[in-house]
């Protein structure tokens, strides 16, 4: 493989992949990914983060051609990509490519659906573009993870912009040169610092990646040039933004080893590295333990858990998503780790604060990222233990189609109503068969 041709190789792959040629397993996973993303975007649409973004940006929007999902406001396609990307990630409930911790759908689906409202798009073309965009962003992520992430970049946005550019470029039918320009324009717009985790700005990252990726494709379509080696060049994206890079991860076996088949979906509304600990706490809670009688909760976790979610005393719901201590306490007391467990009400609840102060977490380097050990010691000296080898929602214990539908209902039914919610579930499963992909955006608003 020629390291000087990475950008062009992947551009040509996206351009030339046969229309409607996705393997059936990939096609089905693309529908699962879209359904999960849509539910997260609708569910997050009423969050304060989206309210603020709309109030700040709507006065500067162009023609109201695209919908903000879950709301009645409309805006231009570029702003819709940003706002729906924010909404889809604000609960931290979206999909996760476990190898890189990229949330693949946020940048790609947000850009695609906004573009489909601007330019008529069939469902089949939409599904192709979604799978190909996710392939691009995750392969680029594979090439630089973990070094790129370790130095502080939020890889969902920095790699996601490539996925959005490739997906929209596919719908624009860009040739190889212009697709390379689109990837180059994406490369020069890196967004996302891990320092922002626990604040509103974290959800801004996939939204801006969607908006920037669409911008890149639109500019390239008009002949706006860039480097055609922007990913791999000496002063290109991978060399500037990462201390390590493996270009074969981008180019080897394209069209054979699909990254979307490694996508996972969250049963809990927080960072995925905490999920094994939550799973263990919920399993022990089923033993009818009295949370008020717990003396100590001891967790053994993967090294990333304390690096990413070590906040001992969160004060906001967003901070609670990055506290393994809060998640364990909330799971044991409230029996869930959904949207309601990451509000100020929950993180400041005296009983939860008291219990999380009795939660201890210790790194165990031997544990896989989807594993944890949980031990609870009661005040009467009784002890309860559970070993989680693979958390629910992991590749080894994936959420079923029915569970994804239930998650969608839980996020969307209060906003859209039961009838419209059920209609959207049906539309999402059959998106690849429709002549009008944008219909689902028009229907994903309150009646």
Automatic annotation (TrEMBL):
InterPro entries: MmgE/PrpD_sf, MmgE/PrpD_sf_1, MmgE/PrpD_sf_2, MmgE_PrpD, MmgE_PrpD_C, MmgE_PrpD_N
Domain MmgE/PrpD C-terminal span(s) in chain numbering: 268-430
Domain MmgE/PrpD N-terminal: 9-247
Pfam families: MmgE_PrpD_C, MmgE_PrpD_N
Family, per entry: Belongs to the PrpD family.
Name listed for the protein in its UniProt record: MmgE/PrpD family protein
Organism placement in taxonomy: Bacteria, Pseudomonadati, Pseudomonadota, Alphaproteobacteria, Acetobacterales
């Amino acid at each position: 493989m020629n390291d000087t041709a990475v950008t062009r190789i992947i551009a040509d792959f996206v351009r030339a992949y046969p229309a409607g040629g996705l393997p059936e397993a990939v096609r089905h996973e693309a529908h699962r990914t879209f359904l999960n993303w849509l539910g997260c975007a609708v569910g997050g649409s009423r969050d304060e983060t989206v309210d603020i973004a709309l109030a700040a940006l709507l006065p500067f929007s162009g023609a109201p051609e695209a919908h903000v999902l879950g709301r009645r406001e409309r805006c231009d396609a570029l702003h819709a990509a940003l706002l729906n990307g924010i909404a889809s990630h604000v609960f931290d409930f979206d999909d996760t490519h476990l190898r890189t911790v990229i949330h693949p759908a946020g940048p790609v689906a947000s850009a695609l659906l906004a573009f489909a409202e601007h330019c008529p798009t069939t469902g089949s073309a939409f599904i192709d573009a979604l799978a190909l965009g996710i392939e691009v962003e995750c392969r680029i992520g594979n090439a630089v993870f973990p070094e790129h992430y370790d130095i502080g970049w939020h890889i969902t946005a920095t790699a996601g912009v490539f996925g959005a550019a490739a997906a929209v470029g596919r719908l624009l039918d860009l040739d190889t040169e212009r697709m390379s320009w689109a990837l180059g324009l994406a490369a020069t717009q890196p967004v996302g610092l891990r320092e922002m985790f626990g604040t509103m700005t974290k959800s801004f990252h996939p939204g801006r990646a969607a908006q920037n990726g669409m911008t890149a494709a639109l500019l390239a379509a008009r002949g706006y040039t860039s480097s055609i080696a922007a990913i791999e060049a000496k002063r290109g994206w991978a060399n500037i933004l990462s201390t390590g890079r493996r270009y074969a991860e981008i180019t080897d076996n394209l069209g054979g080893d699909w990254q979307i088949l490694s996508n996972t979906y969250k049963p809990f509304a927080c960072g995925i590295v905490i999920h094994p600990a939550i799973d263990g706490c919920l399993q022990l809670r089923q033993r009818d333990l009295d949370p008020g009688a717990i003396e100590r909760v001891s967790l053994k976790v993967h090294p990333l858990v304390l690096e990413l979610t070590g906040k001992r005393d969160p004060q906001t719901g967003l901070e609670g998503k990055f506290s393994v201590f809060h998640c364990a306490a909330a799971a044991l007391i409230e029996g869930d780790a959904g949207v309601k467990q990451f509000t100020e009400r929950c993180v400041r609840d005296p009983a939860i604060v008291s219990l999380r102060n009795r939660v201890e977490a210790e790194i165990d380097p031997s544990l896989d990222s989807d594993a944890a050990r949980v031990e609870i010691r009661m005040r009467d000296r009784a002890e309860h233990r559970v070993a989680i080898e693979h958390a629910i929602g992991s590749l080894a214990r994936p959420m079923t189609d029915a569970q994804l539908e239930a998650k969608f209902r839980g996020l969307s039914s209060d906003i859209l109503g039961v009838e419209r919610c059920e209609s959207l579930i049906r539309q999402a499963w059959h998106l690849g068969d429709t002549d009008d992909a944008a219909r689902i955006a028009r229907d994903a608003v309150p009646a």
